Structure prediction request, 168 residues.
Amino acid sequence: MSDASRKQTAEDKPRFLYRGVNAHMEDRALEPKRKGPFEHTFERHDYSNIKHDGNATYGPSVPNAVLGHQLDLEEARKSGISTTPKLERARFYALGNGRHSRGHIFKFDRNLLAAHGVCEYVVAKSVTVPHVPEDEEVILVARDGGSLPEQIVVGDPEEVTAVGQDVD
Prediction:
């Protein structure tokens, strides 16, 4: 890891976040699955997925959206883009745990987010037990509910390949 990637923000968070995508998703890496406000209201059919641990709230809220994102509820996966401060976890997702021979890693500078209208939601601050705690997931959301702006991406996406694979 380079010195630049070890620099911390003023709040002592890793400065950079990473998103790993397989080669088929590269063109959509900055686009959410669905566009719109990053709030969620749990419906009656969702109740079996919710633990009574205080993570869910009544009515539409951002904490519900983060929880729904963690529960992988399709209707809750709105305008959020999953990222991680851990480069090795982004590589894991780029290669799909061995399902893909190549992928790309996008690098985001947290110091540029607010200036470009992007909010970040640290999953561990909203969810008592994150689904994949080793990801240290941070969900990025454009304030307009659309795609993330390219201005927050540092450099070109890094191409990664599985061990023993050549880049085309």
